[in-house]
Write a structure and sequence with these properties.
Two copies of one chain form a homodimer. The first copy, chain A, has about 160 residues and is mainly alpha-helical. Chain A is built from eight helices and two strands. In chain A, a hairpin with a 7-residue loop joins strand 1 and strand 2. At the A-B interface, helix 1, helix 2, helix 6 and helix 7 of A face helix 1, helix 2, helix 6 and helix 7 of B. Chain A binds a DNA duplex (30 and 30 nucleotides) through helix 3 and helix 4.
DNA sequence: TATACTGATTGTGATTTGCAACTGGTTGTG
DNA sequence: CACAACCAGTTGCAAATCACAATCAGTATA
C-alpha cells in the first residue's frame, strides 16, 4: 500500500481523494451542468471558485483518473474535460449527499429539485443516469431514457415558477 | 439564508459541513467503532488524528447538531459523545463512500469487509443499523437485529484469518 | 488592428493543518 | 497521603493550503 495513505479504510481513502471543499463541486458541475471547459466551470459556478483552485483540482482529478482531458478540435487552446468511469460511479454518492443536504441544511428550492428527483428515482434512475453519462463522456451508445433532460426540465420549471 | 454559505445547493451545503479530511473520520469512529470518549477517538484512530484537530472537529460537529455531548457519570472529567439524528442519517452516505472506495482506491481487506457487508445489505440493512444507532446513541428501544454485531464479527473474522 | 476569449499562472495575505509539548484537574494504587 | 496514570483538551509554531485579484501568452473574431 502506498505509504502516502493514512489508512486502508475505504471511507478514509475516499476522503483522501475527494474530501475537500471543491473537488465534488467540480464533478457536480461537469456531471449535472454538463460543463466541459475551464471557463464554463469558472464563470457559471454558483459558488464562484477561484481560477487557481479550479486549475489545481482539474489537474488532480485528471491525475487520479476521475476526469480525462482532450483537445477541443474547434479551438487549439480549448480543452474538453470529461468524466471517467470512477467519477460516473459517484452518482449514488452524490445522490446520497443531495438527499442528506436536503434534510439537514438550508437548501434553496430551485437547487434542490434535482436532488429530490434523484432521491425519489432510486437506484433504477441512478443506473439510467450513469448509462447516459457513459454516452456523454465515454463512447457508450445513447440510452433510451434521458435522466439529464428530466433533471434539467425539473430545474428549469422550478426556476420559472420561482420567478412568476 | 445564511450569508456565510456559498450557495443553496444541497451538495454544496453538505460539503460545507462535512467536506474536510477529518469530520467524517470522527463520525465513522463514533458510529462503527462505538468510540465515545475523546481519548478513545484520539488513541485508537487508525489515521492518528492530532488532538487539536479532534477537539476542533468535535466542537464543530456538536455546534452543527451532528453530535451531542454529555457528562460521564463515572468520571467527572469524562465526556460522552453521541450521534445525533442527522449523523445517524449519514449511514447511506457512508455506505456509498465505502462502496466507492472499495472499487476505486487501494483499500486493505480487513478494513473493507464492513463496507462490503453494508453495501450488500442494502437499504434494509442500513435501516436496521440506523434503528440500532438510535438505541445506542439516543433513547430508542433496542431493535431485534444487531447490525453492529454483524459488522464487528465480520471485521474480527477478517483480522483473524489475516493473521493465521 | 483591436477586442474578447482560451486555459491557466503569479503574488499576496489569511486560514487551516500537523506536530509536539504542555495544562489543570481527577482517579486509582501503594 | 504520595504518586502515577488518566482526563479533555490548549498552546505555540512551522508548513501547507486557500482565497482573491491581477496578469499571462496564445488564439479567434470583427
Amino acid at each position: 500500500m502506498d505509504a502516502a495513505h493514512r489508512s486502508g479504510c475505504p471511507i478514509n481513502l475516499t476522503l483522501e481523494m475527494l474530501g475537500d471543499r471543491w473537488s465534488l463541486i467540480v464533478i457536480r458541475d461537469v456531471m449535472f451542468g454538463n460543463r466541459r471547459h475551464f471557463r464554463e466551470l469558472l464563470n457559471n459556478s454558483e459558488e464562484s471558485i477561484a481560477s487557481n483552485i479550479l486549475a489545481d483540482r482539474l489537474k488532480r482529478l485528471v491525475a487520479n483518473g476521475l476526469l480525462w482531458k482532450r483537445d477541443d478540435p474547434s479551438h487549439s487552446q480549448k480543452a474538453i474535460y470529461s468524466l471517467a468511469e470512477p467519477a460516473i460511479q459517484l452518482v449514488p454518492l452524490l445522490a446520497a449527499m443531495g438527499a442528506w443536504g436536503r434534510r439537514h441544511t438550508p437548501v434553496s428550492r430551485e437547487l434542490s429539485v434535482r436532488a429530490e428527483l434523484l432521491e425519489n428515482g432510486g437506484p433504477q434512475m441512478w443506473d439510467a443516469f450513469m448509462a447516459e453519462l457513459r454516452h456523454l463522456h465515454l463512447d457508450a451508445p445513447a440510452p433510451a431514457r434521458s435522466v439529464f433532460a428530466e433533471l434539467q426540465a425539473a430545474y428549469l420549471e422550478a426556476v420559472q415558477s420561482g420567478i412568476e
